[in-house]
Design brief:
CATH class: Alpha Beta
Number of helices: 6
Low-confidence stretches: none
CATH architecture: Alpha-Beta Complex
Number of strands: 8
Strand order of the largest sheet: 1-6
Radius of gyration: 18 Å
Structural class: alpha/beta
Mean pLDDT: 93
CATH superfamily: UDP-galactose 4-epimerase, domain 1
Number of domains: 1
Shape: elongated
Largest sheet: 2 strands, parallel
Order of helices and strands: HEEHEEEHEEHEHH
CATH topology: UDP-galactose 4-epimerase, domain 1
């Protein structure tokens, strides 16, 4: 609709499409959170050496983009002449099990994974960032660096609820 409106009234339209954005102060419980927040919550809730449940066999591949990278991409897009849809996302693909292991490493915990039945979506997605890259955008946050910023915040939320 935005693109049709832009064509009709001669307004440049820029649409940012995001790839699995995560970071502190995002949704971290309730069923609508992204995997990095949900799994950070599970790791924060379990004792060292404990077990968390993960839907599927843990092999589904995804890439996650830290919020600061997303904001930088949006800013560059809005200051550019690029029109129409532009993908903004980090290109470091990891399995669900690798994501859990990264979170556990940041948390300083040994975590066991119990795979259970549940929705997992497609096995992998292809997400091209060629257009935003022409603006000089490049993700600055590796998954581990983004989780190192996100996990402590999620852990603090879990601890605050435990104190109530």
């Amino acid at each position: 609709m935005a693109m049709a409106f832009g064509r009709r009234f001669g307004i440049p339209i820029r649409i940012a499409r995001f790839q699995n954005c995560y970071g502190p102060e995002g949704t971290w419980r309730g069923g609508r959170e992204k995997a990095p927040a949900a799994l950070s919550r599970k790791v924060a809730e379990v004792e060292d050496g404990g077990t968390i449940e993960v839907w599927g066999d843990g092999s589904a591949m995804r890439a996650y983009t830290y919020i600061d990278d997303m904001v930088d991409g949006i800013r560059l897009l809005m200051q550019s002449d690029l029109e129409n849809g532009v993908n903004i996302g980090h290109q470091e693909y990891v399995s669900v099990d690798q994501l859990v292991n990264t979170i556990a490493e940041v948390a300083g915990k040994k975590i066991q994974i119990k795979h259970i039945e549940g929705p997992v979506g497609v096995k992998a997605r292809n997400f091209q960032i060629d257009r935003v890259s022409t603006l000089g955008w490049k993700s600055k946050f590796t998954l581990k660096k983004g989780i190192a910023e996100t996990y402590p915040w999620v852990k603090a939320q879990v601890e605050a609820i435990r104190k109530k």
